[in-house]
Amino acid sequence: MQYPAPIAKLINSFTKLPGIGAKTAARLAFYILEMPESDVLEFAQNLINAKRDLTHCSVCGNITDQDPCIICSDRGRDKSIILVVEDTRDVMSMERMQEFNGYYHVLGGVLSPMEGTGPDDLNVAPLIKRLADEAVKEVIIATNATSEGEATAVYLSRLIKPSGIKVTRLAHGLSVGSDIEYADEMTLFRAIEGRREI
Ligand SMILES: [Zn+2]
Known about the structure:
By secondary structure, this protein is an alpha/beta fold. It folds into 2 domains: 5-53, RecR Domain 1 (Helicase, Ruva Protein, domain 3, Orthogonal Bundle), CATH 1.10.8.420; 63-197, Dna Topoisomerase Vi A Subunit, Chain: A, domain 2. 42% of the residues lie in helices and 12% in strands. The strands form 2 sheets. Strands 4-3-5-6-7 form a 5-stranded mixed β-sheet. A two-stranded antiparallel ribbon has the order 1-2. The longest helix is centred in the first third of the chain and has 17 residues, at 37-53. The radius of gyration is 20 Å and the shape is elongated. The termini are far apart. The structure holds zinc ion.
């Protein structure tokens, strides 16, 4: 027996999410059917609102509901340091630490030949433009400690160094293969304190 079309479509939508296989998608779809209608409407509206009201900051690439984002709009930060991360969740993790007072740049991913992600697919060109415009003295590359994250750090370092700007990389505390997003505040603090020049 096949599922009625509306539930088949709902299951299909869930399978488009990362880490959701056919079985989990079906479980979620049936769970939604049992939810009160008001909760389902709110859920649907939240999806639409998030997609409609959020955009990428035209300066740093962070996901934001105002452009420039709240961090780029904050003139009280240290203009001489830009911390480069893979995505917006890493910015949130760094901000929770409350130790970093420079600005951010969000790449929107990492270089990955396997997945066909090259420099043009990332928010790299706007970073280079920022470095020319602004009074930046140091770029801290805080990509994850994965092979793609390391390769991206090396690529950026080679790109930025000729401009004379110091390029550093998070060092101690982060274990190989670990994600910035899941690191605790103390680990991040140590990683940023122990950064090394690359
Ligand atoms: Zn921004």
